[in-house]
Automatic annotation (TrEMBL):
Name this protein carries in UniProt: Amidohydrolase
Lineage of the species this protein comes from: Bacteria, Bacillati, Bacillota, Clostridia, Peptostreptococcales
Domain of life, source organism: Bacteria
Organism field: Intestinibacter bartlettii
InterPro entries assigned: Amidohydro_3, YtcJ-like
PANTHER family for this protein: IMIDAZOLONEPROPIONASE (PTHR22642), PROTEIN LONG AFTER FAR-RED 3 (PTHR22642:SF2)
Record-annotated Amidohydrolase domain positions: 47-537
Amino acid sequence: MKIALYNAKVYVEREKFVEAVLVEDRKIKAIGTNEEILATADIDEKIDCEGKTVIPGLNDSHMHIFNFGERMCQVKIGDCETIDEMIDRCKKYINENPDSVKHGLYAQGWNQDYFTDSDRIPTRFDLDKISTEIPVVLERICGHILTTNTKTIELLGIDGSSPQYPGGTFEIGEDGYPNGIFAENACTYAKSVIPKTDIEQRKKMFIEASKYAAEHGITTVQSNDLGTIVFDYPAYFKFFKDIYNSGEGIVRYRHQVSFETVEEFKDYIEDGEFKNGKYDEDSLIQLGPLKLFKDGSLGARTALVRDGYKDDPTNNGIEWMSEEVMDEFCKVASDAGIQVATHVIGDGAVEKTINSYEKTFGEEGNKLRHTLVHCQITDKALLERIAKLGIVVSYQPIFLDYDMHIVEKRCGKELASTSYAFKTLGDLGAKIAYGTDCPVEDCNPFPNIYSAVTRKDSKGFPEGGFYPEECVDVYTAIDAYTEGSAYMEFMEGKKGRIKPGQLADIVVLDKDIFTCDPMEIRDILPVMTMIDGKIVYKK
């Protein structure tokens, strides 16, 4: 089938645009003037873009789409301005949805820094006001800290004298009993009390989340779901294949897979999906990297920082994985030819992860394109080292919307000035991809691009931008979201550009992102999304 998009402003590469593009079957056949493209024989469908801007499909380099699907079905607590408001919403939700919460209530999204009456973290005493009959688990937006009610603690069978969970902590209150606050890997144990959504419900959630992504111009998601959200690997590898084999898969999906132990990872390589799974080169679904976690989050003060927090000097954060275990994971991955992508936020986590990566580099350097996901807190020396070693960075510029208000308090002005260094790292020659870490942030890519270009929060603060020397231009931001993310998955030259021979992932925008007021970028929406040569969304 041949589809012609004409009368458009088609972005090809920096400062180069054409009027029209021809799609044949799954790929871009030709680009050129309206006359050139419309003169092609046997065009099946002609789409007049009415002068609108056309860009390559956007590729979210790191997210959790399963978790996002769940969030779409939960009580909404992300915009609560007080703990009492959060309590009231949860109580109302329980009253209105008794069957769905009869075994427990889970939701994610609160942020203590957005509470207007206090910036304290909720405790079990707050959540006991929601219910003392069912377990209640409310997770912070970052996913690295949560609060439970007393019922949850009782079901876990822990008390003030219980040993801490490996790779995580639960706080003990003044009364000598757990106060309901769990951090890092301890969160996994707390959430285990809430019964998991069954596989058919997850299918509906995944499809709805995929539709939302496509409606917002996302054509590829590189998603960390196995090993973080679901743990039955054989069942869920099959789950994804079944969805895509049936034609219900909408967006391209690349697995980022986590494992709790090196032995589980070895099983995956030697007798699991890595050995036995079959994935065609241009299939909508692909296996991707091993996904590791080195530290926590800045907002929860669990990011691993070298010199302690300025507002909590004795706290260096949490090292999720020891150097020895990380070295072993990286060695096993390197021997098997598997890419590694690691969650790193603090400068301590960045440095230690680079060390583990570098130990596996031979004469060819970073041939497996090992990646630093987030890479927020950095000094100039770390940035230079990343670029020199050819390590890929998956940035989430939208994190600045919140973090600009806390990073100087947490890390000091000097270190803040070299952090979230989108432009400097690019100027040093590093390979950069963009993503959202959805559902930590919405997967809508345009607020993310707005953050990279303006370095302002959603209210336009600060007037000149937060350390504005790190602002990037629109071309750079779109290229990071397309070609950069494609490079991260070894797909450069195959997708990420509107050029002949590349996969036909295309988005038509309602506003010209290249010429509009930068403050308007966050409000841009697609009017059409094409994936693999098929129109999957049209407004």
